[in-house]
Amino acid sequence: MPSKSDPNGQNTMERVKKEFTYMSRDSRFIVEVLGIVKDGFGSPVILMPIYPLGSLAGCTLTEKESITAFRQILVGLMHLKNFDILHRDIKPGNILIRKRTPKRFQIVLADFGIAEIFDEKAEVVNDRSDVWSTGIIMLEKMYGLDKEKFPKPESESGRAEWYARWQEEVRSKVESIDSESEPGSLMKEMLQRIFVKCDKRVDAWGCHGVGSQIKLWRRHSIRLRARWWRSWVKWVDGVPEMRKQENQGDRKRKRMLLDTGEVNLHASDVK
């Protein structure tokens, strides 16, 4: 954003370009950033490659692909949070398919809230709303939740009633999941941690940790390559120099979670 010392916002633009380029380079689950420009209204826009396989919108996934996407979305959100960025618009159309073969399935997060980083006064808030949206995608892809049956009303007057009905439908769908067999029982446990009041909901780190603890990822997702997984853990331990002095206490907490296995981002979790 323009300021007295940077009236055209050029220095901020260059800083953001460098940070977003570094961020996308160090996560397979964040869209590759080719550049950042401003549109006709002065808003920042990410230039990214074309992904021929499209997005999760209208895409039918296998059970393993769905759970793999679940895990990768969480890892992408965790990575964004390390840069104090929330996505704010997690939906199938913003999750692009990077690779899809019988043995490999990989997604990337796109169209996240780039404008946030331009606002130096913006508050850093939690990513629990992004986690909620991720859970909704899993209910859609794996258990047939139909959002089209609950169109959001345009007027403010009807939104409270709509929201209450929508929440009831979501929780009802979670309760209907067959818990007598896997992965239904594990998915049900995960989703029950997500669809609660915001102050009680796990964030992306906590949600991934739950998946590791109940062995959802190990048993039912397409495994990640160990070499890349080790490099991601190494990145968490040694963050970029430009961010090293920021949120130091929070990063120590995350490293502690890694070491104690509460998050369990270790190569032993993959082949």
TrEMBL record:
It is an enzyme of class 2 (transferase). Signal peptide: none annotated. It catalyses: L-threonyl-[protein] + ATP = O-phospho-L-threonyl-[protein] + ADP + H(+); L-seryl-[protein] + ATP = O-phospho-L-seryl-[protein] + ADP + H(+). Its EC number is 2.7.11.1. The keyword Transferase applies. The keyword Amino-acid biosynthesis does not apply. Gene3D superfamilies: Transferase(Phosphotransferase) domain 1. One of its GO terms (molecular function) is ATP binding. SMART domains: S_TKc. Residues 1-216 form the Protein kinase domain. This is non-specific serine/threonine protein kinase. It comes from Fusarium napiforme. The lineage of its organism: Eukaryota, Fungi, Dikarya, Ascomycota, Pezizomycotina.
